[in-house]
Design a protein that fits this description.
Strand 1 and strand 2 form a beta hairpin. The protein has an eight-stranded antiparallel beta barrel with strand order 1-2-3-4-5-6-7-8. With about 160 residues, the chain is mainly beta. Helices cover about 5% and strands about 60% of the residues. The termini are far apart.
């Protein structure tokens, strides 16, 4: 199982505007470590890490850039999904956010459709969006070399 399809999911996270609004984003991931082990029902369970970099464009025209780390793992049998994961990112202004996501990969495990929820930290590290949440969805592609991926998506912060 290509571990990057697990992590292309991860590509989005921080924001830099104070008001609720929609945004689009593009991102890229670089594969880190992956581990596979036998799981329930004999299904191979794979966990993978990745470094991510994301560029957001808000409906207001404001732009944001974030970097972070993700961990993704095989979804449970019968869930209908292929991957679940979590990411933690820091925006260029220092604000931090976490994202929880789920993906469904295609038959070749080269593309995925994903959705998730971004939670912006509270307190000083939460930045302008502290305490807010975003819903997001995106389409990811694994790079031809299998060592990274790209994603394009959209979201709504409330």
């Amino acid at each position: 199982m290509k571990s990057l399809i697990l992590v292309t999911a991860a590509l989005l996270l921080s924001a830099t505007v104070a008001n609720a609004e929609t945004f689009t984003f593009t991102g890229k991931s670089t594969q880190g470590m992956s581990v596979g082990a036998p799981g329930p029902g004999g299904k191979l369970v794979v966990g993978a890490t990745a470094k991510i970099e994301t560029d957001l464009v808000w409906a207001s025209g404001a732009k944001s850039h974030s970097t972070g780390n993700c961990v993704a793992w095989s979804a449970p049998l019968g869930s209908g999904a292929s991957t679940n994961g979590v990411c933690y990112s820091t925006d260029a202004d220092g604000s931090k956010s976490g994202m929880f996501f789920t993906c469904i990969a295609d038959e070749k495990n080269e593309q995925s459709d994903c959705w998730g929820r971004v939670v912006y930290e509270t307190g000083p590290s939460g930045g302008k969006n502290q305490g807010k949440v975003s819903t997001v969805s995106w389409h990811g592609h694994t790079n031809a070399d299998g060592k990274g991926g790209t994603a394009v998506g959209a979201g709504n912060m409330s």
